Amino acid sequence: MFGTSGVRGPVGDEVTADLALSVGRALASEGYDRVVVGRDARTSSPLLADAAAAGLRECGADVIRIGEAATPTVARSVGWRDADAGLMVTASHNPETDNGIKLWNPSGQAFDESQREAIASRVRAKNYNLARWDGLGAVERWDGATDRHARTLADAVSNGDGTREDGERDGTARPLADLSVVVDVGNGVGGVTADALHRLGCDVRTLNAQPDGRFPGRPSEPTAENCRELAELVAATDADLGIAHDGDADRMRAVAHDGTFPDGDVLLALFAREAAGPGDRVAVPVDTSLAVADSLADRGADVARTRVGDVYVAERATDPDVAFGGEPSGAWIWPEETLCPDGPLAACRLAALVADRGPLADLLAEIETYPIRRGNVETTEKASVVAGVERRVRREYGDVATADGVRVGTDEGWFLVRASGTEPVVRVTAEARSEARAAELFGEAKALVESAADAEGETASEEETAAEESATEGELAAEAGERTAEGDARGNAAEGDAAERGTATERP
Q1: What pLDDT score was predicted for residue 158?
Q2: What sign does the CA torsion over 103, 105, 106, 107 have?
Q3: Catalytic residue among 77, 92, 220, 295
Q4: Which of 118, 349, 162, 150 lies closest to 254, judged by CA?
């Protein structure tokens, strides 16, 4: 039921109010007594949030409802409100037809595999601790979550020491007063970024800023293709920087002043260089470019590779030697701030970096990039094919990692073979420091996958042939049995007739 991104799927099919009610009941039954509930702008989100809150309260948990908010706002609010968990209704960057639920710990880290499985087990078994009439959970509303998030972001970037009388940070410093930023909210709930940048003194213009779960301005995922309007606007104006979020603002991508849309690996390398020092590590997924590790080398830092998915990056970021974690898709984690991917925090930190060091395009030009090849091999036996590749490469290569698929490192590059989680294909990626070597590695990797796929095809064919032969033998045996039975029946009938004739002859 739960993937690494929580529950997610088409509304009315996989994601229903009944499911949201069940997740709420299960969460409360697991002992999470105080839960923050938030939602994105999708048309189904109010309904699903109501159902989840009802399930929580029905099993005795108190609910703090913060309404429409970014996912990192919900994740941070768990700790701010001394809650036990957070429940965010969102499908993140998925299309408008989808929705989902993601659960959060007080540290800002998403529920890990064991926590997710505990909830899923209760839902499957319908094992809930329903409260009596006098034990139902209470509900309260907190309208200050987004404002608290904006103030926290401004303070984190300005490093201001001003605090209010209640002890909360106020982020009143304005160190980015000369910076012009365009924020493409993507009709999502990431408006907190514009608020925080305004607090920091930026000249802020917004694009697709009206929350609308139909995503009329552009598709929710902030890709180069989907953010062309932002890129054109930044290039045509005096803007220094463009920022783009997905529907729930856990992701952040950027546009340089000249309208270029940087590759996610290069942006990851830039953030990593700024965050890491000697002896530090940066948590990145196995498909991350060599550019990141290379950019860290002169800092005395290195990468720690994880499975693909921000949940796994966040888990690795809990280790004390990890200064930063990120994914090229746009998830950025500063563990000293929070363990959730915080797109608005990334936006503010990038704006501060541009204000301090100059144009983003110039900063990115300092990072060396390498040729990368990607492709797919179609197969319905994904797991078996990847296992076959692993057996082969362990015999032929020295640097083999299998945390997520099969990754092989060489002196000049690497290749990765992974089963797709959504399609009947095995994905092949290769990167090297020269175009020729990248092509060579990609060819090697693809040949390994195709060979394993062919072997699986032969095995399947042999199994089918054996099954057909077995079926044929069974049919022949059955036919022989039928013929024998028919012969026996005819013989018995003949003997019976003879007996009757004999008996008739002997009668007087």
Answers
A1: 84
A2: negative
A3: 92
A4: 349
How many whole angstroms separate alpha carbon 208 and alpha carbon 46? 21
Mean pLDDT over 123-141 rounds to: 98
Bridge-partner residues for 402, per DSSP? none
Which one, of 241, 299, 288, 243, lies nearest residue 266 by Cα? 288
Tens digits of residue pLDDT in 271-318: 999 999 999 999 999 999 999 999 999 999 999 999 988 999 999 999
Would the CA dihedral through 148, 153, 158, 161 be positive or negative?
A: positive
Find the Cα–Cα–Cα–Cα dihedral 494, 497, 499, 501, rounded to 10°: -140
The alpha carbon of 338 is separated from its chain's Cα centroid by a whole number of angstroms, namely 18
d(C-alpha 101, C-alpha 11), whole Å = 12
Tokens (6 digits) for 127: 């094992």
264 — alpha (psi -120 to 50), left (phi > 0) or beta?
A: alpha
pLDDT digit string (tens) for 381-420? 999 999 999 999 999 999 999 989 999 999 899 999 999 8
Q: Catalytic annotation on 92?
A: yes
**pTM summary value:** 0.84
Helices (H), 258-375: 264-275, 290-297, 310-316, 343-357, 360-365
CA distance 16 to 20: 6
Average pLDDT, whole number, for the chain?
89
pLDDT reported for residue 495: 46
Rounded Cα distance between 366 and 273, Å, is 11
